[in-house]
Amino acid sequence: MAFRWIRTALLSFLVVLCFSTLIWNANAQDLTPQNTITVQGSGLVTAKPDSVQLYLGVQTQGETIEAARQENSQKSAAVIRSIRALGVPNLEIQTTSFNVYPFYATETSLTPLSSGENKIVGYRVNNQLRVQVEDVNSTKLSGYSSQIIDTALKAGTNTSGGPNFYLSQRSHAQQEALKFAIQQAHQIAETVAHETGVRLTGIYNMEVYSQPTIMSRSFAMAKPETTSTPIESGEIEVTSHITIRYSFKPITASK
């Protein structure tokens, strides 16, 4: 008797499970549109940068590590003092690296030998600084950059990189670029639907990708006695891309 009850319960469970699976599959098929169209849109916004990064270095050499280090410390400190004395707003200075390299009697360039059994004849010390000015008036940014570079060169900088201009707050520009991308994608979808005789019924899914393009400006190392180094900050290009998958239905001809 108990066995018959268990068998009846098991059969009932299997029937319910199969019925539920059929309903789930039917619903899953209903959620997946049979007719879709995928389009892409791009938006571009230009804006003037409000921030800049400069990489300035002091490289010295001497017969001993201490001699090279002392000279480097004096020149690096002079560079930092002279830059801070400019009174540039929102200025930050950070040491990014401090390296010591031996050089050998057989070397003919500033590149240290990776290995060798030659006699060490001296040492090089390299102190790299990152100078950052953020969230300032874009019309003054180029002038600040030029002043920092020229001042650093006069104070003892002999290696450099940048400047790299960027937007400290780029969310607004990205949102504007995304609006243009969405408009373009929708216009393309509407055109395709109109020309093929179908009607858009909704959005099935979408993917968004935004990428700011930082425009970097290079400059030539100027001698202290020359005029100020010309720097142009230019403009930042912020782009957004979107991929939208629309569902559609054929337009029913009116009788």
Describe this structure in words.
This protein folds into 2 domains: 33-47 and 170-250, Translation Initiation Factor IF3; 51-106 and 116-166, Protein of unknown function (DUF541), domain 2 (Alpha-Beta Plaits, 2-Layer Sandwich). The protein is elongated. It has helices spanning 2-31, 65-84, 138-155, 171-196, and strands spanning 36-47, 51-62, 91-104, 120-133, 159-166, 198-213, 236-250. It is an alpha+beta fold and 255 residues long. The protein is 37% helix and 36% strand. The chain has 4 helices and 7 strands; from the N terminus they run αββαββαβαββ. The strands form 2 sheets. Strands 3-4-2-5 form a 4-stranded antiparallel β-sheet. Strands 1-7-6 form a 3-stranded antiparallel β-sheet. The longest helix has 30 residues, at 2-31.
Provide tags for this entry.
255 residues; alpha+beta; Translation Initiation Factor IF3; Alpha-Beta Plaits; 2 domains; 4 helices; 7 strands
- Whole-number mean pLDDT: 80
What is the name of the CATH superfamily of the largest domain? Protein of unknown function (DUF541), domain 2
Domain module count: 2
CATH topology of the largest domain: Alpha-Beta Plaits
Task: Report strand %.
Answer: 35-45%
Count of runs of 4 or more consecutive helical residues: 4
Concise synopsis of the structure shown:
With 255 residues, the protein is an alpha+beta fold. It is 37% helix and 36% strand.
Walk me through the topology:
Blueprint: H1 2-31, E1 36-47, E2 51-62, H2 65-84, E3 91-104, E4 120-133, H3 138-155, E5 159-166, H4 171-196, E6 198-213, E7 236-250
Antiparallel strand pairs: 1-7, 2-4, 2-5, 3-4, 6-7
